[in-house]
Amino acid sequence: MYEEIIIQNLWWKTKSVSGSKLGRLKRAEFSNLLEELEDDKITCLLGPRRTGKTTMMYDLIDHLLNNGVSEKNILFISFDNPKIRLEMQHDFDSTMRDFSNTIVKEPIDRLSSKVYIFLDEIHKLDDWGNMLKYWQDLGLKIKFIVSGSSSLRILKGSGESLLGRINFYLILPLNFSEFTGIDVQADFRDYNDIKRVHDSLILEKQELLITLDEYIIKGGYPEVFYIKDVERAYEVLKQYKTLTINRDILDLKDIKEPRILSDLTDLLSDVMSRRMNYSTFAQVLGVKVDTVKNYISYLEECFLVYTAYFYSKKQVTSTRKEKKLFFMDCGLRNSLLMKEIDELEKTKIVENLVFLHIFSMKKRELFPKIFYWLDRLRNEVDIVATLKNEVVPIEVKYSNEIGKRDLKGMVKFCEEFDAKGIVVTKDILKEEGNIMFIPAWLFLLIVS
User: Fold this and answer.
1) What residue spans define the domains of the chain?
2) Which of 86, 197, 383, 423 has the most neighbouring CB atoms within 10 Å?
3) How far apart, in whole angstroms, are the C-alpha atoms of residue 245 and residue 70?
4) What secondary structure does DSSP assign to 190-235, as a single string?
């Protein structure tokens, strides 16, 4: 097994990280992660596969090497490797001691300087939380940085054993600010602040609109950012779906008919930004409703989809109402959709993008709750978010022709909950009473 580990740690020989492993895009979380290197707590990068968690680990290793940390004091292990996973499952402690004695050449309880241990896809290791708790509680000069792409396995693994000992960072696909390379600061609930940013970007507006169209089609996975051919990008994204199902669901769940799970994922692509009917899926797939619910929960655990609840001050009402489906990346969803992306589809995609950016704003909550709302006449508010104890209703109308009929749900919600609403438009910027109209390109830049 040690030969496999040596291959994963070539900087022990080269004293540098291969350029092919380093990220080409600047991620918003990276500066925070640099500060985390000095924190004694375990740092956990959590999020979908292929969003850059492993790349960030290599970037952190590169930073350490460039700032005087000995190459021998850095250990990286990927538990995607089945041989390593099987052996370390039963011999984790011995591996830690062998690394210290053989590579660092110091007893692990008498280290002269800090050792950094990166454990990738740690959720594949049973009882990993208790394993790390043991070492964390020894108070040694060890900093653990771990990653995982299964939320349930990570949270179940950390559980009470690592309570107060671990910091979570949710790593998602690129937001629009990262996609464009433009970083702006503004309060999206302050019209004057929004207008200021709008006017400052007026010369870049046309280029931003072109970039938004690309973002709508391809989504935010870092790898597809560099792929110009859409068909090729979709091929890669479909592989992500297969990889996630095979490695993060089938490896961890007892699923007797994996094909049904794959087919369900494809079916969900056509109901993105819409309320779901579990019975319809069950009938199409020839399975029980509970099976559909379970499979969707598995997809949620691996950050492929998200189900939004009905907004109500009564928990029972919120839970009983039908759920609304969002994808965690629009490009991946588009790759599964078996029809052309027309203007109607673009509206659904923009709504999903607005959801993703609100989700990103709240990701320090780790698993934030985002809602939708219907009045008794079934007039809808697309997204309802709670931000700093304020309820914010958001309606997406990716158009420049918006009438009173289009805003019935928004007006009703604002009256009932004494709220100020936001309408995300194609190119309308204005404020009318307690409702602000903001162009999608501007809203997505500001909300990140």
Assistant:
1) 2-170, 176-446
2) 383
3) 38
4) -HHHHHHHHHHTGGGHHHHHHHHHHHHHH-S-HHHHT---HHHHHH
CA distance 326 to 299: 11
Dump pLDDT digits (tens) for 407-419. Answer: 999 999 999 999 9
Instruction: Please report the pLDDT score of residue 153 as a whole number.
Output: 67
The pair of structure tokens assigned to 167 is 């910091």
Q: Given 3.40.50.11890, 3.40.1410.10, 3.40.30.10, 3.40.50.300, which CATH number is that of 2-170?
A: 3.40.50.300
Which pair of tokens denotes residue 344? Answer: 């109607």
CB 413 within 8 A of CB 393: yes
| Rounded CA separation 219/334 (Å) | 9
**Tokens 């925070």, located at residue:** 32
What is the Cβ-side half-sphere exposure of residue 51, based on CA atoms within 13 angstroms? 31
Pairing mode of beta strands 274-275, 435-439: unpaired
In a 3-state reduction of DSSP, which class is residue 175? coil
Strand-pairing partners, residue 436, are 422, 431
Tokens for 139? 């108070």
Structure tokens at 247: 């490695």
Amino acid 339: pLDDT? 85
DSSP 365: G
For 148, 151, 172, 175, 384, the CA distances from 329, given in Å and listed in that order, are 18, 17, 9, 10, 19
- List the beta bridge partners of residue 395: 423
Strand 115-120 and strand 74-78: the pairing is: parallel
Q: Given strand 435-439, what is the order of strands in its sheet?
A: 274-275, 324-327, 305-310, 371-374, 380-387, 390-396, 421-425, 435-439, 430-432
Token readout for 360 is: 């990103």
What is the rounded average pLDDT of the residues 313-335? 95
Two tokens at 243? 């990889």
**In a 10 Å sphere around its CB, with 0-12 CB exposed, 13-18 middle and 19+ buried, how is residue 83 labelled?**
exposed
381, 395 in Cβ contact below 8 A? Answer: yes
Stretch 28-46: mean pLDDT: 94
